[in-house]
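Entry type: protein chain
Record version: 2
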Amino acid sequence: MIKVGIIGATGYAGAELVRILSRHPGVELVALTTRNYAGKPFWEVYPHLYQYVNLICEEMDLPGLVKKCDVVFTALPHGHAMPVAREVVRQGKKLIDLGADFRLYNTAVYEAWYKVEHTAGDLAEQLVYGLPEIHRDRIRPARILANPGCYPTSAILGLAPLLKKCLVDTASIVVDSKSGVSGAGRGLSLNTHYCEVNENIKAYGVATHRHTPEIEQELSALAGEEVVISFTPHLIPMTRGILSTSYAKLKNPLEQEELAAIYRDFYAGEQFVRVLPAGMLPLTKAVAGSNHCDVAAVADQRTGRVVVVSAIDNLIKGASGQAVQNMNIMFDLPEDAGIAGPGMYP
């Protein structure tokens, strides 16, 4: 059994990670840390896990926690995973970080967008960006695994076949994304107050959202050239889910069936990316509670553009489910262990 510790277990992503790993056939949860609930049974914080998770929330003793784990998950705000990474490397263990600290290979870019000093730049050679459908072979031996952000997961998986095949003008890419409120985390905020969110939709982080350089980094690697995009996220009044609609100018006209075949071929054998059949478009309810990313690409013959729609559950394929998918790869387990199957509907 793989011994697992979770630092930051009582946020939404951390709690979903606990839920998934509590039923994982190859895992033993050995430590759950929290700043606010030390000494409480985890099920008191999240009652749906009563009789499923009996661990007591604890304050973090970093060296002691790493010592008793094979892999440590961090679900922390940016800036807080760097000392954990150092201790994990020192003890020869593995880290899967659900935060932003290791997603950008260029630490200067990280500091410019996140406004904090990156103190673990010397570990850059040991980290891998953990999008399995793109980097599976690099994930297997990884020591520090940067779990992708939720918006980037939906955008990159939607656009990857187009960039890899050099089918679009890379200067023309626009990504428009909508997210449920759980993406903002469990902390109290006026922006996520019920009266502010209910019956409302709003754009935020226009031209400044911190996931932008992460999307550009991965699309640039796929395209083999620098890619700069326009990215606008929106908050919508639902609990979970992300729907991204991406637009780009095709270099040459494509028939719809040609485009569909490109996507089917690119994701052939990928059990968690579902390329939808003709006439069917992704919707958030179809992926809620699952580790799936649903994708559909439409060739707009009138404008010469391609429109790609992708949907994920932001807490699962956009966070904790993908983190477990990465862990399975790193430990040579079946990739779908603990995360197989459809979601819930309605």
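Comment: The radius of gyration is 20 Å.
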